[in-house]
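Q: Structure tokens for this one, please.
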Amino acid sequence: MALSNISALCFNSGSLAFIRVAAICFTSLLFFSIVATTAVVNKIPEMAKLSKEDYEYRRTDNSVSLINYHFVFVPKRRKPVLVKAVAHRLQEIIFELVTEHGWKLIALEVQPDHVHFFINAPTHESPADIARWVKGRASHHLRKEFPELKKLPALWTPTYFVATTGQVSTEVVKKYIENQRGK
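A: Here is the predicted structure, written as tokens:
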């Protein structure tokens, strides 16, 4: 399996344990997946720089598109439950979905009381479907693996925020998400 354009995230000081992520581009398939490696305690990864591929159009037999979605998901009653092992597992679940659906992960930031999720998605997957898949799988697995989350009537609020971005504002949204760290 030939891999190219591997870019790893750098780490700086922080309070949560996260994992190193590498975006792997299969040259001939334009398929991106996320590889999780070594857990680093008390470090928060910095987001990778936007690569040339983040600005390229997604091409299929029937369409050419550049659809970037910025999602924000909030736990029920905005409880700060997305910490430590829960936040780490939530990232793993999101990485699995990114790989399965062929999304391009541009940015991901898990805060104790909300999640910023910024992806490039194909035209046949609606924002409503993406939100349902992420929130549904995360709720199912997190509540099963962390019984303390069952104290909430549901893991997520029934709502979510989503905005589309194009080439011009992608970097602006990414910087906004990066600036959420530490707030």
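A few notes: DSSP finds three helices and eleven strands in the chain. The chain has a mean pLDDT of 75.
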